[in-house]
Amino acid sequence: MNKIYFTQGCPGIRTLSKIIVIMKITFFIVLATCLNVSANVFSQEKLSLDVKNVSLEKALQIIERKSSYRFVYCPTEGPFNKLVSIQTDKVPIAEVLNLLFNGTSLDFLLEDHLITIARTGDRQQEIIVNGVVTDSLGVAIPGVTVSVKGIKGKGTSTDMNGRFNLKVPDNAVLVFSIVGFEPKEMLAVSGRSMKVMLRSSNDILDEVVVQAYGTTTKRATTSAISTLDMKNVARIPVASINDAVAGRIPGVIVTASNGAPGSKSSISIRGSNIAPLFVIDNVIRSSNDFANLNPNDIEEYSILKDAAATALYGVSAANGVIIVTTKRGKDGQTNINYSYNQIFSQPTLFPEKIGAYEHAVALNKLAADEGRSPFRSPVDLEKVRTGSDPLNFPNTDWQALTMKEFASDMRHDLSITSGTKALTYFASLSHYDQGTILRTKKNYNKRTTYRLNTTSDIEKLNLKVTAGIDGFFETNSQPFAGYGGVYSHIQNRQPSQLAVNEFGLPTSQPDNPVRELDPLSGYNKITAKIFNSNLGLEYSAPFLEGLKLKVNGAYTTYNNFRKIWSYLAPAYNIGSKTPINAGPPSLTNEQGQGATLTLQGYLTYNRTFGDHAFDFTSVFERQTDDFSIVNGTRQNYQIIYDQIIAGPTLNATTAGNEGEKRRAAVLARLKYSYQSKYTLEGSIRRDGDYLFPPGHQWGTFYAVSGNYVISDENFMKSLKEKHILDFLKLRGSYGQLGDKKDLTTGEEILPFQYVSAYGLNANAWVINGNLVQGSSEPGTLPRSLYSWQTIGSRNLGLEFGTLNNKLTGGFDYFYTRRKGFVASDPRFASTLGVALPLINVPSAAFRTEGLEFNVNYASNINDFSYKVGVNFTRANTLWERDPRDTEAALKDPFNRRTNMPGDFFGSGLHSLGVYTNNSQLLTGARFDNPNIIAGDLKYLDANGDGRITSDDRRPIGKNAFPRTNYGVTFDLGYKGFSFNAVLQGAGNRDRYIGDVLQGSSNQNQLVYAYQLDYWRPDNTDARFPRAVSTPSINGSNNFQASDAWLIHSKYIRLKYVQLGYDFKQNLLKKSPFQELRLFVSGTNLLTSAKSQDYFLDPESGTNNLNNYEYPIQRTIAIGLTAGF
To answer: TonB-dependent receptor plug domain location, by residue (predicted)?
Structure first.
């Protein structure tokens, strides 16, 4: 039965109590400060004014610019054209106005920062109006401008729940307006709540969707494109944008191998275990660039899944595309936003380790079973139990010595949005400081990101100019043994091993993590700097409506520096403070740098002629990459000084490489739509790449797609009117893409393998007294016939909306088939003695088939708004023909990969449980070893030859990569309160736990509580077979790869949760803030998974060999967002 874990192990309740105390203190400080600001900011404001011979109206405008006061008046009702002169120095506003209005019939009423001006005795009676503004679905609309018609400066805006409250003159006409909806006028009514419904001018079906090299609308989309609403995503305080999208989008899989500071989760799409292409502002960027993107900078986020959506990116898009556009400035609006997050993190699981006494008892039992001397004598065992001799018989708690209860992180974000009609800009700055749970102050990850986007409209020239710069600085400092190495040492040390002597100094115990974390020990430090710049010119042709010409240029430079100081701090013996130095240290410096230039030329034509709409895009693109890497190492330092110059030159080594890449493409897309009901789209791309031989460097890739909006047919009219079926669209696509990935590595194939060349040997040879650098024969025979893989892709989708579009959703069926894998022909390599040249293996094929869907329901009940969403993805894979299979393997139906699911775990024996008594050994097949006894694993004789051998291995289990993924999202709101949560889960995957019980952490160590559940006469219903001290005891019978060590690794977890309150909505309505929001959030708080019985986070360790990597973290954070 699965268990739910919340707090466990060493953190306990104490940790959460500390965090809650810190949160409470922070909350009251913030609240007190905000209330103080609200109460005093206006009452203390005084004015200095110096104007001569200006109109009264102009003087009022000057006051508005120099202060926070705003005026409400009717320009035709008073002498506002009268010339006035005044000079004041820091006097109250009332005194200034009395001087200005002296000799006129004007009077004023001051309420906080709002000043109403009217003729003396003619001021209208005012009333208070309130109400709520919703759309046609009844969903509240925040940010609606509510103004009084004919009165300048009088107005407000609706809050997050669509509510407004305003004092207006009696019989006033209110105007409600917001982008995307038609303006509406209503007579002000007091005494009851006004209900205002705005009709959408841009229906939800006409929302802009970012696609390859352009935009479209939801209604017009013919391909599989999902979008992500960044409103709630950006609020999640995570280290990477990748971490924030898990469980939100169908077809998108997010995996995290570990939780070390600076680690990045990976994203894959529709069952592919290779990363998709990442595009930021129409420019292809690296996965690292994307992972470091500030979520608060993102305006639009789209996921392109099928060939029709991705074909324009050609070979780079075989595994899907993720496109984001970043924020830009807005005309006539200045907004400043700041947010702060204080984050506390700890592992989702702390392995439960046994104490020294329990450990000694277990090892004594093991020794007795094998007829060996006990691990501890009765006398020594008593010393362990009582702790009377802690130095010679220690009981070491390795976790308590090396790990803190929680790590502390913090994040700051600042952005400014502003502009005029001619120039707008968006600027942002973010800093994220991430700590570690290890007891060290010199290990951390710090990242600073920045961005500046500008847009200039030059109307006289019909020209729009966009420019931007962005980048980040990141420093990652970890122990020289690595986070994973140190954490593994912490968990795999025995309690009977001594960590420190009586003076608290580390011992010489091998792999002693206390010693590795000593301030004197070495480090592995990486500093990365990325700078991106872009410039775009867009010309709208006045001679042909809808024609635009555009050029884009983007330039990226990067510089990475790694410094590894390999040094272990001194160790100390018991009773001594005299250091025992480890071996002499060594130092490695590595410098990498490079630059990428991308040039694009666009021609677009978008025009509608009655019922017919045409959209044409063509692009020429060229990209160049240049890079170089150099590294050097010096060893056997005589002084402890971590500078390269301080090391001896003897045995010093240097290495490096450099290279350049060139790619080009030309592409086009044509879309035709009739009555917005029927849409056809075709796209084609011609790709050129230097990786392939001349004559095979260019590939052509294409896609066709279409949609049919069934709900627009006349026969659907009654269903739409009754809101039984408001929207129904069928779409389908087919396309052929290319790929250039190596079959085994998942990376691009190596260049110039078609060239006949000799490799240089680093070792020199002495010939006739002269040093001559050697050479080696080519590793493969050259050949110039290989080219792109080809990938056929089909997609069929259905989208719907019902109940007045409160319930919406979509279903997609997808199928892809890869063929023409680039590989060496395996049929003859072993006989030839040298690797054969690369070819496109004609019979090799791999297919993926699956289904995904998402359903969302959004509505409100008075002030309570809610939205619930469910998404699901299932992908199956199959090797129709694996090119790695030899001719011999193809004839073996049990061990070949061909005609096997692509997601099976591997090859191994099928376990039939354990031998429960020795009599069972007399019958049935087993390994030829006389020491196999009761409690050992029993295996299936798959080939029926009466023996257990390697020939009985069969495909077992399912890969750790999840083939089933799902998510459930919740978004709730009530009067300034907001609540958001995501449940995320995965299934159809297995984890291999044998490497926890075998290998470097042999079962005989028995350091974990669950390891004690092994078979013995008094525990026959055990999880594991009998324990043995070494594999040779029973001929490694229990250490064979088999499904006995596989566990189902499906899981569901509370991935994110956040509760927030915006003080602007109620307590601070009259403050200068546009938003003042305090929130508490958490990630990975609750999890249900079988793997947790073995203290393995279900998301970690996807390579199955390092199950105890630095653990996935759960976090609790408190944050504040302020907008002005």
So the answer is: 218-321
Where does the pLDDT of residue 28 fall: very low under 50, low under 70, confident under 90, or very high at 90 and above? Answer: very low
Q: How far apart are CA 238 and CA 855, in angstroms?
A: 26
Residue 607's Cα: distance from chain center in Å? Answer: 38
pLDDT at 1001 over 50: no
User: Containing H/E element for 381?
Assistant: helix 378-386
Q: For residue 801, what are its two tokens?
A: 């909306």
Question: What H or E segment, with its residue span, contains residue 45?
Answer: none
Q: For residues 614-624, give the mean pLDDT.
A: 94
Q: Write down the pTM of the prediction.
A: 0.80
Distance (Å) of CA 585 to CA 87, 570, 654, 818: 75, 12, 17, 50
List, in sequence order, every residue forming a beta bridge with 986; answer none if it has no partner: 965, 1051
And the tokens for 475? Answer: 């420093």
Task: Give, rounded to a whole angstrom, the gap between the first and last alpha carbons of the chain.
Answer: 51
Element (H, E) at 309: helix 307-310
Q: In this structure, what are the phi and psi dihedrals at residue 586, rounded to the nearest 5 degrees? A: -135, 160
Alpha-carbon distance of 162 to 735, in angstroms, equals: 45
Under a CB-based contact definition with an 8 Å cutoff, are residues 414 and 428 in contact? yes
In this prediction, residue 3 carries a pLDDT of 37
On the question of pLDDT at 8 being above 60, the answer is: no
Nearest residue to 671 (alpha-carbon basis) of 211, 314, 205, 203: 211
Taking the C-alpha atoms of residue 1114 and residue 1100, their distance in angstroms, rounded to an integer, is 13
Rounded-to-integer distance, Cα 1067 and Cα 1075, Å: 12
Q: Which of 340, 135, 4 has the alpha carbon at shortest distance from 1121?
A: 340
Closest CA to 656 of 688, 680, 694, 630: 630
Q: In which band, very low, low, confident or very high, does the pLDDT at 768 lie, cut at 50, 70 and 90?
A: low
Please state, in angstroms and as integers, the Cα–Cα distance from residue 1067 to each residue in 103, 161, 826, following that order.
40, 15, 74
Residues, the chain? 1124
Distance CA 269, CA 257 (A): 17
**Pair 347, 1086: CB distance under 8 Å:** no
For residues 1001-1016, give the mean pLDDT.
75
Confidence category of residue 565, pLDDT binned at 50, 70, 90: very high
C-alpha–C-alpha distance, residues 677 and 733, integer Å: 17
User: CB 1018: neighbour CB atoms within 10 A?
Assistant: 7
The CATH-assigned architecture of domain 47-119 is 3-Layer(bab) Sandwich (3.55)
Torsions phi, psi of 1003, nearest 5?
-60, -25
Boundaries of every domain in the chain: 4-40, 47-119, 128-197, 222-327, 356-393
Taking the CA atoms of residue 59, residue 60, residue 65 and residue 67 in that order, the dihedral angle to the nearest 10 degrees is: 110
| Structure tokens given for 1007 | 């350091």
Per-residue pLDDT, averaged over 991-1007, amounts to 61
Q: Class of the 128-197 domain? A: mainly beta
Q: How confident is the model at residue 445 (pLDDT cuts 50, 70, 90)?
A: very high
- CA 434/CA 1115 separation, integer angstroms: 12
- CA–CA dist 630, 588 (Å, integer): 11
Q: What's the pLDDT at 784?
A: 62
Q: From CA 785, how far away is CA 522, in angstroms rounded?
A: 50
Q: For 222-327, which CATH class? A: mainly beta
- Maximum Cα–Cα distance for the chain, whole Å? 120
Q: Rounded CA gap, 409 and 848, in Å?
A: 41
Q: Do domains 47-119 and 222-327 have the same CATH topology?
A: no
Determine the 3-state secondary structure of 434 from DSSP. strand
Most confident of 792-801, 889-898, 1035-1044: 792-801
Average pLDDT score over the chain:
85
Give the DSSP H/E element, type plus range, for residue 719: helix 717-721
Find the range with the poorest average confidence among 35-39, 79-83, 217-221, 789-793.
35-39
